[in-house]
Write a structure and sequence with these properties.
469 residues, 12 helices, 15-stranded parallel β-sheet, 20 strands
């Protein structure tokens, strides 16, 4: 009875549950949220210090907009806080230990002690991030790793998750990570042969993420014994032309790629379920349309697909884009788009080739224009209102549309007018207002007023409900 009352909010959990069980519950919370429980009462004041999910991120203390001198001072306070917290930790083991410091060179001995603490506690998930937020748009080759992974980590054979950013790793030393399931590497040099050796030593690997790695040559994945289910390759530096080869990965379900357009050679027998494609690093679209068209054919089985503005502008220029041989199996499509005219032919391409589409998410982002863009046909300003085609998904399957970052521009309004007026089975239209102001004085209130104008439009579906957030 007391437990039911506590769950209903009528009684403090501390009066019902034993302390050891509260420790387990707190360990499921993110570290920052666990710390916030200390304000609940005197009983809860130090309870969070028994969490087995430990995360120390300098952003708790250091803000990027502060002066260099202030950052140096606060980074020292942060390191001192970690020292004190670890010194008072009394539990015998931990599950996860995460540390993020952007200027580790002044605290090498301290950081090595923090890592030694985690290893001594039998940590299963280790995350070390020494990258700097100011690097985000930089060429990764300009930033050598700032910290060397201590030798005793290579001897810690119980690791199940390892995430290293700007942390130099000695691949030949990795021979004991037989339990590793999740591996993320970023801001490091990673040659093709090193990656192959790494995968051979991790037979249970299920998730692999590579971010801003360089000197990779090409990406070659062909390990029939791999259990890999998730693969993410984000803005890595390859030799030109880029070649992505994925074979013998029958369990692969999730594929994320961002960077320059590559020659993709994918295993069509894979049971792909989700793909996220972003070619934002491209500065020219010439000669890439057929490569992207063939990529979509290889991904014909995915049910969740996310595509970028570059894809929308380019795909209709493919020689075969009119009349896809294999209609896509996509049920949830995300368009990262500015909804400008150069993207319209690509949007209709996906409407036409996703006959089973049930959910459409439009994530509005800044426009990208390419100087050598050649539209597949002459653009007309009444594109969405004249000679309208009602695609099969609009007639039969599309039930939910989400728009994120709505400002109510003319093109946004026209596209939504089209969907509302022709979406015969639509049930939900969720509009999330942008919080950004624009150069023309646009603000949240103005965007909301524009969104409310959509409520007055004629609806093709009597079940359609429009919500504005």
């Amino acid at each position: 009875m007391k437990l039911k009352m506590a769950m209903a909010g009528n009684e403090d959990l501390s009066e019902v549950l034993p302390e050891c069980l509260l420790h387990i519950i707190i360990s499921f919370l993110p570290f920052k949220e666990a710390a916030r429980t200390s304000i609940l009462s005197k009983f809860w004041l130090n309870l969070w210090r028994a969490t087995k999910n430990i995360e120390f991120h300098e952003s708790f203390f250091v803000k990027p907009e502060e002066s260099d001198a202030t950052q140096v001072m606060k980074r020292r306070v942060f390191i001192h806080f970690v020292q004190q917290w670890i010194g008072n930790y009394c539990e015998s083991c931990i599950d996860k230990f995460a540390l993020a410091v952007s200027k580790p060179e002044n605290f090498v001995a301290d950081i090595e002690n923090f890592i030694a603490f985690a290893i001594a506690k039998g940590v299963k998930g280790l995350s070390l991030d020494f990258s700097d937020p100011t690097w985000m748009e930089d060429d990764p080759k300009n930033h050598e790793p700032l910290f060397d992974l201590p030798s005793h980590v290579y001897e810690h054979g119980v690791l199940e998750s390892l995430k290293l950013f700007s942390c130099k790793i000695h691949i030949p030393a990795i021979k004991i990570f037989s339990l590793l399931k999740d591996l993320s590497l970023g801001w490091i040099e990673l040659q093709e042969k090193s990656l192959k050796a790494l995968l051979q030593h991790c037979p249970l690997l299920q998730s692999l993420s590579l971010t801003k790695c360089w000197n990779m040559g090409h990406f070659y994945l062909s390990e029939p014994s791999l259990l890999l289910k998730k693969l993410a390759i984000e803005n890595c530096s390859f030799h030109d032309p880029v070649w992505i080869y994925i074979k013998n990965a029958p369990r692969l379900q999730f594929f994320k790629y961002s960077g320059k357009v590559a020659s993709f050679d994918l295993d069509y027998l894979c049971c792909w379920e989700e793909a996220d494609l972003d070619f934002g690093l491209e500065s020219s679209f010439n000669g890439t349309a057929d490569l992207l068209y063939n990529l979509l054919l290889d991904l014909f089985s995915v049910t969740i697909l996310s595509v970028c503005s570059f894809m929308l502008q380019v795909i209709s220029n493919s020689r075969e884009s009119y009349g896809t041989a294999f209609p896509l199996n996509v049920r949830h499509l995300t368009l990262k788009t500015a909804l400008h005219g150069h993207e319209f032919s690509g949007i209709t391409f996906f409407f036409d080739n996703c006959p089973l589409l049930q959910t459409l998410t439009i994530v509005l982002c800044p426009a990208r224009n390419f100087p050598d863009y050649e539209p597949p046909f002459e653009f007309i300003h009444n594109f969405w209102t004249k000679n309208l085609k009602v695609y099969k998904c609009l007639r039969r399957s599309l039930k939910t549309v989400e728009v994120k970052g709505f400002k109510g521009t003319a093109n946004e309004f026209l596209v939504l007018q089209y969907l509302i007026g022709l979406g015969r089975v639509m049930e939900r239209l969720n509009i999330y207002i942008s919080r950004e102001t624009d150069d023309n004085g646009g603000n949240v209130e103005l965007y909301r007023e524009r969104a409310q104008m959509l409520l007055q439009l004629n609806k093709a579906s009597k079940k359609l409900q429009i919500s504005i957030y």
